[in-house]
Amino acid sequence: MEIKKIFVVGAGQMGNGIAQVSAQAGYDTVIYDITQELVDKGVNIIKKNLERNVAKGKMSADEQAAILGRLKATTTLEDAADADLVIEAIIENFDIKKEVFEKLDQITPPHAILATNTSSLPITQIAACTKRPEKVIGMHFMNPVPVMKLVEIIRGLATSDEVYQIVEETSIKMGKVPVWCKDVPGFVSNRVLQVMINEALWELYEGVAPAENIDNIMKLGMNHPMGPCALADLIGLDTVLAILNVMYTGYGDPKYRPSPLLKQYVQAGWLGRKTGKGIYDYSNQ
Ligand code: CAA
To answer: Is the peptide bond before 110 cis (omega within 30 degrees of 0)?
Structure first.
């Protein structure tokens, strides 16, 4: 089966990045969110990213126009009726994803593949919300999507070989490097990454060092491009907490217990870059 049209559910930081790389790869792309304001915000970020590429001489104005010509925005989920591949990138909440996958299963044509960009929720459980579990797969992009090379591909218990191959080829066409792993809580990426971020938040909670020092130690000492506190703010502290909770529940192991400081930041609405405040303050940016 050839993928021609990709429908991205969610225009937030992951969704707009996925829609951008999809349109850049030549796919007819639709970006969906529940309100016009959210969709417009996502499309504007894509436009700004493309403009920056043109200004840097990395892309011609004609290419930019062609990419935007392939991108459509909608607030109507029924517009997924002719999609070949749907990539869901909404909030990390199983009940909300369940509702969306049940609807997508009704709306999309029988051949359509339903992929989820979930960071940690079980692909097998999401697949079981549909009547096509063999066509459901995890397609886990990294933030910022236009820059990061990896797509972690996670097969559910029922995912077919054909679907896996198509998603692998599509990821390569998007300029990414697909790497598979099994369907376990947190997959490979977040099982490693979030334990490190959580440990940094425990250090912050215990007053071991300020955030700047924790980040500098990891940047200068381990050559990480950004420290764990800055990275947590980039990912979103609500997402970090949601992933840790999935692993804490999924493995029943106290090593995943979220730092109380992380919970408190989320309660305060300090979610990171996206809210202008997280571990660091971004109000002047
Ligand atoms: N969107 C698009 N492009 C972006 C961008 C964004 N949000 N942020 C940076 N860029 C681009 C810049 O325009 C720049 O492009 P050029 O090379 O063409 O000039 C390039 O990326 C480098 O940016 P900067 O020079 O501004 O800054 P940097 O060198 O420090 O790189 C970074 C920024 C790429 C974010 C780098 O710090 C980095 O790799 N950080 C780690 C990111 C990471 O670990 N991501 C994974 C998070 S985990 C996840 O996403 C999964 C999950 O489930 C939680």
So the answer is: no
